[in-house]
């Protein structure tokens, strides 16, 4: 089936988030080092980003490096950081050609200086692009994000900048890294694992979850179109009954 031709482009998810999993297993299956799985994973990143821009998805967020990933062997962490720098250098043209704005969520201050500088540079150079926002979650952990959010709000309440009664969902949204992004509509995880792994816990409250066995380096835009097609054929009730919706 050609999923792209069967998509309803007026009902695309406003925000797609992806847990790109399976790089290590892809490499192991082929007898390669884990690093080559990550390298191959960058090809999937490019294809999926272009696929989103092609059909008009407005927001794509990729889980590129979690707070927990710092615990991986130093060599693997170094490889991932180097890949980030080389991909940013290489893909700035893809971002410009497709009018894509780069954004980042996570504790960027913990990234190596070179990676941080390159990232901020590309964010700055693409800041006026309007077709789509590509957000990279880097050194990101949802619990850390929520903890920081609570601390910031508590400080404002203490200094009487904010009253306790004024705290509502929108105030919380404004104090998260994702403050400028809509809620996630569709969350995809590759490689057959069915976990959230500390990713966007607040923002996925009503997201549709989609799991595929495909390993991330093998994932391409056609697979994404299939996931969106599947999403469009689900009934999102947001706590209501089916009858109320119709
Ligand atoms: C999970 O696979 C993947 C990661 C921890 C890193 C994702 C990074 C990339 C796709 C490449 C760089 C990305 C950008 C945006 C430049 P895993 O290593 O946990 O795989 P496994 O579970 O099979 O071991």
Describe this structure in words.
- The chain has 246 residues and is an alpha/beta fold.
- The chain has one domain (11-141, 183-234): Undecaprenyl pyrophosphate synthetase (3-Layer(aba) Sandwich).
- Helices cover 43% and strands 15% of the residues.
- It has 8 helices and 6 strands, in the order E-H-H-E-H-E-H-E-H-H-E-E-H-H.
- It has helices at residues 23-30, 34-55, 74-97, 113-125, 142-158, 169-174, 221-232, 242-245, and strands at 15-19, 59-66, 100-105, 132-140, 186-189, 208-211.
- The protein has a 6-stranded parallel sheet with strand order 3-4-2-1-5-6, sandwiched between helices.
- Helix 4 links the parallel strand 3 and strand 4 (132-140).
- Helix 3 (74-97) runs parallel beside helix 4 (113-125).
- It is globular.
- It starts with 14 loop residues before the first strand and ends with a helix.
- The model has no long low-confidence stretch (mean pLDDT 97).
- Farnesyl diphosphate is lined by residues 20-25, 38, 41-42, 45, 62, 64, 69, 80, 83-84, 87, 136, 191, 216.
- The active site is at residues 21, 69.
- Mg(2+) binds at residues 21, 208.
- It comes from Christiangramia forsetii (strain DSM 17595 / CGMCC 1.15422 / KT0803) (Gramella forsetii).
